[in-house]
Specification:
Number of helices: 2
Strand content: 25-35%
Number of strands: 4
Number of domains: 1
CATH class: Alpha Beta
Helix content: 25-40%
Distance between the termini: 12 Å
Shape: globular
Radius of gyration: 13 Å
CATH superfamily: RNA polymerase, RBP11-like subunit
Largest sheet: 4 strands, antiparallel
Order of helices and strands: EEHEEH
Length: about 90
């Protein structure tokens, strides 16, 4: 099973925009998540930024018909994929 998230901080939540900070996560994990989110129907933009490589947390911006649902679907897709890979290694 994938490692649990250390924490999420919602920066902005509007009807079609969701911006969230991933506390304690590295950029690689959030970038992989972005790849799953962008595949969701209705997602216009999914971008990740990290101001400083050592002292800041990644921030994701999702612009979509339902950005919260897109984030949930992306997390579920990433977890499913990592679970399948883990099973193959056992």
């Amino acid at each position: 099973m994938a490692k649990p998230l250390s924490g999420l901080k919602i920066i902005r939540e509007e009807k079609d925009v969701f911006e969230v900070e991933f506390i304690g996560e590295d950029l690689a994990y959030v970038a992989a998540l972005r790849d799953f989110i962008i595949k969701n129907k209705g997602v216009e933009v999914c971008a990740v930024k990290k101001e400083h490589p050592e002292i800041s947390n990644p921030v994701m911006l999702i612009k979509a018909q339902d950005p919260r649902k897109a984030l949930i679907n992306g997390l579920e897709g990433l977890n499913k994929t990592t679970d399948q890979l883990l099973k193959r290694l056992k």
